[in-house]
Amino acid sequence: MSEFKKTAIVTGASRGIGAGIARQLAQDGFAVVVNYAGNAEAAQSVAQAIESSGGQAMIHQADVADSAAVTSMFDAAETAFGGVDVLINNAGIMALAPLSEVDNRHINQQIDINLKGTIHTLREASNRLRQGGRIVNLSTSVVGLKLENYGVYAATKAAVETLTAIMAKEMRGRDITVNAVAPGPTATDLFMEGKSAELIERMAHMSPLERLGTPQDIASVVAFLCGPDSGWINGQVLRANGGII
Ligand code: NDP
């Protein structure tokens, strides 16, 4: 049965945007690897929700910053589902501080997870994705907005956008597209944590649509880029932010 299904690996799929993407791709017919870093219960509940709606999913713990763990995750996906067709580089962290104050731990963590993590998964994907595959990397609209305090985080995501365009060219001849989605403020733990209600309200009104994005808003865009109607979009960054920039 699983031979007929395409397989998607979604990194950081236990919560937030990644969980929304995993559920949407499962609904669209993909067998999904629900990757997580530490939150096994949350990953399990995403996989259970997929299976109880008739989809196929497995959970897999791997810190994307650990290249050996990323290799093992692709091995596990191939063993369970027979191959990998789609990679969604969604796992990410954010620590805000002005450049005058940013601490070494936060510099290293954001570079290790957001940038090196993406490089690790792209390397595996470039060696393993089947013909006709899809890669979607999560960037951020802050790459365009260039807000104060977002320096290190935005820099890691600017690098992800550059990797997106180069990877698209490196996939020449394999019918594999590589794109990035750059959300604006989206109602998840990553966005909400550490912000006052006033700041959240102000940021919700940055968009002319006057609300925060939802994980489903972003999942719909990612699913489009993984589906049959987006095959001519390649090497692009799609800013999904309600019109902020
Ligand atoms: P959340 O903090 O809500 O969820 C993060 C997810 O990433 C969790 O599933 C977490 O797993 C996983 N994760 C964290 N570190 C690692 C790691 N080292 N290896 C594997 N998985 C990891 O984040 P969001 O859903 O908000 O963000 C998803 C992506 O979207 C990120 O790349 C973020 O930068 C980007 N983005 C988000 C925006 C927003 O406003 N929310 C705006 C623009 C971009 P676990 O549960 O196990 O900890």
TrEMBL record:
Which InterPro entries does the entry mention?
NAD(P)-bd_dom_sf, SDR_fam
Output the SUPFAM superfamilies linked to this UniProt entry.
NAD(P)-binding Rossmann-fold domains (SSF51735)
What is the E.C. number?
A: 1.1.1.100
Q: Which GO terms describe its molecular function?
A: 3-oxoacyl-[acyl-carrier-protein] reductase (NADPH) activity
Q: Which UniProt keywords apply?
A: Oxidoreductase
What Pfam families does the record tag this protein with? adh_short_C2
Enzyme class name: oxidoreductase
Q: Per the similarity annotation, which family is this?
A: Belongs to the short-chain dehydrogenases/reductases (SDR) family.
Write the protein's name: Dehydrogenases with different specificities (Related to short-chain alcohol dehydrogenase)
